[in-house]
Amino acid sequence: MSSGARLVSAADYATHRGVSDSYIRRMRREGKLVCVGKLVDVDASDRLLDDVTDPVRGGNRAMPAGADAGQRGRAASGEVQEAIHRERLAKARLAELELAREAGELTRTDGVERAVFTLVRQALNELQGMKYQLRGRLAAATDVAAVDALLDEHVGAICERMRKAARTLNAEPLGAEAVDVVEAGAALDANEAQPA
Fold first, then answer.
1. For the chain, which residues make up each domain, given as ranges?
2. Residues 72, 69: Cα–Cα separation, whole Å
């Protein structure tokens, strides 16, 4: 230790660092400060604590070197309080989302997107396959009303299967298992619609 060392009390050093007295006393007890008796060597202790980057634990708060202790303490306190506030707000939002999900008020979008894609794909496949299922019957029909009735019947059956699948999606939570149920049900319905 040099003879020009600046020695202060724990309370004065706490003010200098912008932290609580109890924090500095604990640091002194744990041997994390450079002390002479009960007094703290300001410069040597600052060099040790400046390596600590957590502002809650007395580290460097990125204040200019010329800033006084009051400015450093206020800036650190404001930054820490803001960080604590953001963390608590994020935790509260996550808790609200989790409660809403458990209550069945929320659904994961990836499951919804997959289920909707599956329903649209099934409807398109059935509509595109309609000509293969109906061409023989349409070629044999000579009456326009009979052709219209045949087309209406087939398109109506496709629409009803899609409505039933949509109701299944709306009634159950959407996970992979709900999508699998819709896919399996649509496959069975499509097989039933195939001509013998």
1. 7-97, 109-193
2. 5
**Sheet order of strands, 39-41 included:** 7-8, 39-41, 35-36
Between the alpha carbon of residue 62 and those of residues 46, 48, 91, 179, 184, the distances in Å are 13, 15, 27, 53, 61
Per the DSSP assignment, residues forming a β-bridge with 8 are: 40
| Rounded (10°) angle between helices 109-140 and 176-193 | 0
Helix and strand tally (H, E) in the chain? Answer: 7, 3
191, 178, 182: which is closest to 163 by C-alpha? 182
- Per residue in 67-102, pLDDT (tens digit) is 555 555 555 567 778 888 889 999 999 999 888 888
Question: For 14, left (φ over 0), alpha (ψ -120 to 50), or beta?
Answer: alpha
Length of the chain: 196
Per-residue pLDDT tens digits for 33-67: 889 888 999 988 888 877 664 555 544 444 445 55
Residue 56 CA, distance from chain mean position: 26
Residue 72 and residue 46 in contact, taking contact as beta carbons nearer than 8 Å = no
| Amino acid, res. 26 | R
